Structure formats: C-alpha cells, structure tokens
Amino acid sequence: MNKPIGSIVWPQSSRESVSLYLQYMVKVVGAFRISFGTTSHNPMNIVKDILAGAALDEERCAALEHWWKLVDTRGIRDFRSKDVLVARLAICLLSPAEEKASQLGEQLSWFLEVLFFLGLDVDRAVQIMHEHFEFRE
Q1: Quick check: pTM over 0.90?
Q2: What gap in Å lies between CA 60 and CA 95, rounded to an integer?
Q3: pLDDT, tens digit (0-9, with 9 covering 90-100), for 14-30
C-alpha cells in the first residue's frame, strides 16, 4: 500500500521531527551508497554529527552555503549533471532545521524527486519511508 507523505505522523517536537527525518535520509543515502567526495562539507558526516549532538548549526549552514554555490555556478536549472544533482542531494540533507519543521513533508517530496533525477530506485526509498515513519490511517 502506498502511503502519502501528507499522512506521516510527525513528533510534537520540532527537534524530534527533524531528527526523525534526518535519520530517514541517512538510511536512504546509505542504502544507495551515494558519495559526496572528500569535501570538508560532506553532508552525511555533518548530519550524522547533528544526530549525535556533535555538530553546531553554523557547520550545517556553512556546508549548505557551499553546496548552493556549487549549484548556482554549475547551473541552477541543470537536472542532468550528476555533480549538480549530488549537490542538490547535499542541500536536501542539510536543509532541515527546527525552525522549518513545518516544511518537512515538502522537503521529503523534493528529496525523492532528486533521487529520481539521479536515476535511483525511488520505490526503494519509498519502501524505506514506509518502514521508517508512522502514518495516519
């Protein structure tokens, strides 16, 4: 059964909601073995540090700025270049923040779109989503 993103039951706390979402993205990116290279702005390392309570928000924001610059300089409308799409995926990983918790459903939808443009198995990501999140009936 396909469960819509809009029926995800998010925790009451913005922090817990963001954490739940970040955990999901880490699972998916790990399952697809996506590499972000050796940059000091590696979104997977930063997100894992955030989840462990070891990263500052300034780190996340600096990395987010780095990846946006890459997208801006290589083509904001480019949905074919793997480098640009990987940068967009990095942006997806780094964008969730407590003050934007109300936008997590929209961010999740965009995350799945980027996976699609990368040519990855979106059905697998959706399956992981169904296993990871709780949904309203």
Answers
A1: yes
A2: 8
A3: 999 999 999 999 999 99
